[in-house]
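Supplementary notes for students who missed Thursday's class. We covered one full example, reproduced here. Read the sequence, then the structure, then the short commentary at the end.
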Amino acid sequence: MVPLIAIVLFGLYVRREAERIRAEDLRPRVVVKLKLAGPGMATPAEVHMRRTIEDEIEKRGLGSITDTGSGDGWATIQVAVVDPEVAIEQMHDLLDKEGVPEWAVKRPTTGP
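Structure (token representation):
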């Protein structure tokens, strides 16, 4: 019982710290939206594809991943960037390499 409570409390702490760190990052955001095969959550293969794209975004220095998820037939990757226009162009190149359609990159949003 005690270990379970400790795990829950630690999970809440980690979540709160992640939210605080994201709130402090005021760089503009680019949201990459990937259409999923079905209307719900991502399949394991789709999650793998999203993670591959996330890794490549950070490896190429395009920005920092600030949030990810899936639902309602879409997988999303939110990236904090320095210059949204340059980042979008570079992300289009990355997505082309990965075989993702051009429409997958949404216009940048500002703020956290």
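Commentary. The first helix runs from residue 2 to 24. Strands lie at 29-35, 64-71, 74-80. If anything here is unclear, bring it to office hours.
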